[in-house]
Each structure stands twice: as structure tokens, then as C-alpha cells.
Amino acid sequence: MNANLFNVIEKNIENIDKKFIETDQGKIYSYGDMLTLSAQYANALVSLGVKADDRIAVQVDKSPEVLFLYLACLRVGAIYLPLNTDYTLSEVTYFLKDAEPILAVCQPNQISGFENIARTTGVKHIQTMDNLRDRAAQSKILFNTVPRKPHDLAAILYTSGTTGRSKGAMLTHDNLISNARVLVDYWHFTSQDCLLHALPIYHTHGLFVATNTVLLSRSSLLFMPKFSVSELERLMAQATVMMGVPTHYHRLLASAEFNRSLAKNMRLFISGSAPLSPETHKEFFDRTGQAILERYGMTETNMNTSNPYDGERRPGTVGFPLPGIELRIADPKTARILPQGEIGVIEVKGPNVFKGYWRMPEKTATEFRADGFFITGDLGSIDKQGYVSISGRDKDLIITGGLNVYPAEIEATVDALPIVTESAVIGVPHADFGEAVVAIVVIKKGEILDEAITRQTLSQTLATFKVPKRIIVMDALPRNSMGKIQKNLLRDQYGTLFN
Ligand code: AMP
Question: CB of 273 closer than 6 A to ligand 1?
């Protein structure tokens, strides 16, 4: 049996005339076009000497062609390695040295920089998307997809590396197939769906969660080059589902034009990659009548949990473990499995979990338990009904005066203050307490925050040791492209607050 993800996608197609992608400019690619173009790109790759298991690094702007290149890599049996377009050349050097791709695809203005890197890293070919497109256009329109076994690699995605060196997560064909199948079913995708796609495609969310789910449900993508509120408002009536990060939902809500009638054709709004506050959930519901479905996943594991499609989508939680995925909470230090309700590190096991970190066997070994569970590094708990909640990253846990403070709990309390838009809670070195709780907040326009009064208000809800010792107002929180708050930058900035 050919366990290549592309083989599964191809076998699933019923009608080659069915639309696969429509761009924001109205350009349409059918499933038949997808088969032809991916074959042409696959032939172009082979003409450059690409073979099964070779890595192909891609750092280019989002376009439908890049998705055909991704699919072509699958067809050749090569390993797709997308890179965030924000990475600088010096960061790219690290990835190319580490992954040793045979081919790197870059933006036209980066070609000389990439060629310099290639000289020192042994990358054989550097191409721009335009070069590759021309080569593909002259290539045959048929290609026999290379057979793969379930555990062969389909992609390497480097983790965002907000703590320590970025690691290459090795994802297999089976990881991607199993997760996409589960999501199609759990989120009730049908061929009638059209997914509003405003996410980047170098990250698991926009690449695998969105694209593979669409491909395996024979539905279509409404493809935007980047996120834009006005464009989303223009296009939303043509779509049925949106996948976004919390920032997208904040920005939509900040637009007075975004209302119930714009969203009336939509059956599902999904949020993930960062925590969605219950306030945003509620505001969105009040504005549109739709309850955002929050789910939780990571590069290494694909999607782990989701709020239910039909049941209660509980704000502030990430729902239940997806079918076929085991999830448990353990004591981060002793590995003891904790009883229901207690906070500990989230561990997961299932066909969704990656094969390990590229060329880091020791690091990989320390991230798995002996019984095969992957230690996510996220702290969380499971309530009586089985809903999972996330309390922050293990590394973000604050220990003040010997007591544990979970940032997510404090952030939820701070966010609930009427003048606060959003917050990030960090631990800052403190001579007396070891670490002190500090809240960095963004407040509504025109408001003024009185630190002493706010601390007093918080102390009505929070135990004294949890009340932030300082509350600092910022214009905006530093976020990466997936909307994750970069707490490492805040810790650097405010590290000497109590010196
Ligand atoms: P990435 O590998 O870039 O997808 O980041 C994965 C991390 O994002 C997880 O380990 C979580 O810390 C965080 N994350 C993803 N989804 C959620 C969510 N719904 N709520 C809170 N954190 C999330």
C-alpha cells in the first residue's frame, strides 16, 4: 500500500472539475489543476536531481503555487521544509546547515544571500519561485507519486524557538493523514465547505490543519495572501469556515463594519495557536451569534484537543482530546499522573505525535516518557466533564516565595477588568521572593490605569501571592506571526524591574 499523503488525497478526489482554490483576485484552480500543477512541479524537482528523503527548504511569500510545490514534494517523497518569511539570512543559515536540503527556494531579492549560504552549507540548488514555475511549466503533466511508508517523513517544521535553539520537528505521512482525517470528521467538513484562508503557510496551522483538512474533505480554500480585516469582510460571505489565531478575532471585533450579517454564511470559526480569552469568545458571540471553537495543538503533535462541534464550546478551554489521541496530566518533576482537576504538564500519545527532532536523538529522548507519551511543555488540567484547560507553558510558570503561580489564571483575571484589552503575566527576578508576578497590560484607548487601585481590585479575586507586584502598561504586546506573545522579550525588557 502507498501510504504517501498525496496518494490518499488523490484517491479521495471524486470530481476533477471541483474547485480547490479561489484566490482573493478570483483566480480559480480546480482539483484537476492541482493534480496537473503538482505533477509538473514534481517533474521539475526530479529534473533538479531531487530524490525521496531529500529536504527542500522554502522561504517565499504565500501563493497557491507554493501549495503545489508542497504537494509536489510529497509526490516525490521529498521532505518539505517551510521557513517563516521573517527569518533573516543568518537564521536561515542555521536551518540550512542543520537540515542540509538539496534545494532551497527563496524570494528573488534573497538570491545572492542564499547563494552565499549555499557555498558554506552544501545546498546544491537555489531557485526562486519564478525559476521553478518556468521549469514546471515546461515539465510533463503526469507524475507517478513515489510510494511511502506511514512513518516516512513528509515534512520538517522548525519550532518557533522562543526558548532555546529552534528544533526541526519531523512529521510523517501518517501523522498528517491521521490528523487531517480526524479533523474532517470532528469539524464536520464536507465538499460544500469553503475555508477562508488568511494564515501563513509556513506554519502547521495554515499548512497542515487548514490545507490537508480541505484536501481530504474535497472542499475549497478562499486564499488570501495575508490577513487583512477589510479583505476578510469583503470575502466572508463566500466562505463557510475560518481558521484563525486569536489576534485575527480581536482585529475583526475592533472593526465596526464586522457584524452578524457578514458572518451569516459561516458555519464555523476556529481559533488556535494561542489562548483565546473568554472575553473575546463572548464578544464574538454577542456580535455574530457564533461561538468560536477553540482547539489546541503544536508543531510536534498536530492537533491534540478541540471543543466539540455540537456540544458546548466552553470559553477558556481547549475542549476534549481528539479521537485516537490520549492525553494526561503529569507532575512535571516526578512524572506522576495527576488526578482530575490538578494542574501539571500535558502529555499526549497517538498517531498525531511527531517522530522526533531532526538529528537531535538525545533531545528527543528527554521529551518522551518511557511509555511513549510526548511531554508537551504546556501546563494544564482536565475538569470534571473532561474539558482541557491550558495554564501556560511549563517554562512560564512563576514560583514566587515558593508558591506556584500559573500565568493564565492571572491573565484571565486581569483581562476581565473593563479597561484592559489584553495582558501577559511574567515572573521577574526578585531578591526576596525569588520571582515576582508582573502583569504587562494593554488598556483601552483613552483609559488610565491606576496601579494601586488595580492591584487592590485584583486582590478581591486573587490570593495575595498571585496579585501582580507591578502592573505595567504597554501600547502593544510583542507577538510573533502566529499571535503568540513573546514572553521571553518581556522578561528581557523587565528583568531588572526589582534590582
Ligand atoms: P506551535 O508549535 O507554534 O504551533 O506552538 C504550539 C504552542 O502554542 C502550544 O504548545 C501551546 O503553548 C500554544 N497553543 C496552541 N493552541 C493553543 C490554545 N488554543 N490555547 C493556548 N495555547 C495554545
Answer: yes
Q: Is 296 in the pocket of ligand 1 (CB under 6 A)?
A: yes
Helical H segments across 48-159, by residue range: 64-76, 89-99, 111-121, 129-137
Residue keyed to cell 494601586: 452
Q: Which of 209, 484, 485, 488 to mutate to test the pocket of ligand 1 (most atoms within 8 A of CB)?
A: 484
- Look at strands 220-223 and 194-197 and give their pairing: parallel
Q: Which of 296, 425, 481 for mutating ligand 1's site (highest number of atoms within 8 Å of CB)?
A: 296
The answer to whether the beta carbons of residues 365 and 395 sit under 8 Å apart is no
Cα 296 to averaged position of ligand 1 atoms, centre (Å): 6
Q: Which amino acid is at 159?
A: T
What are the structural domains of the chain?
5-226 (3.40.50.980), 268-392 (2.30.38.10), 398-493 (3.30.300.30)
Provide the grid cell at 246. Answer: 486569536
Tens of pLDDT along the chain (499 residues)?
A: 899 999 999 999 999 999 999 999 999 999 999 999 999 999 999 999 999 999 999 999 999 999 999 999 999 999 999 999 988 898 899 999 999 999 999 999 999 999 999 999 989 999 999 999 999 999 999 999 999 999 999 999 998 655 567 899 999 999 999 999 999 999 999 999 999 999 999 999 999 999 999 999 999 999 999 999 999 999 999 999 999 999 899 999 999 999 999 999 999 999 999 899 999 999 999 999 999 999 999 999 999 999 999 999 999 999 999 999 999 999 999 999 999 999 999 999 999 999 999 999 999 999 999 999 999 999 999 999 999 999 998 989 998 987 889 999 899 999 999 999 999 999 999 988 889 999 999 999 999 999 999 999 999 989 899 999 999 999 999 998 888 999 999 999 999 999 8
17 vs 379: CA distance, rounded Å: 46
CA of 68 to the centre of ligand 1 (A): 27
The whole-model pTM stands at: 0.92
Distance from the alpha carbon of residue 390 to the mean position of ligand 1, in angstroms: 9
CA distance 199 to 33: 22
Residue nearest to atom 10 of ligand 1 (CA): 298
- 249 in contact with ligand 1, CB cutoff 6 A: no
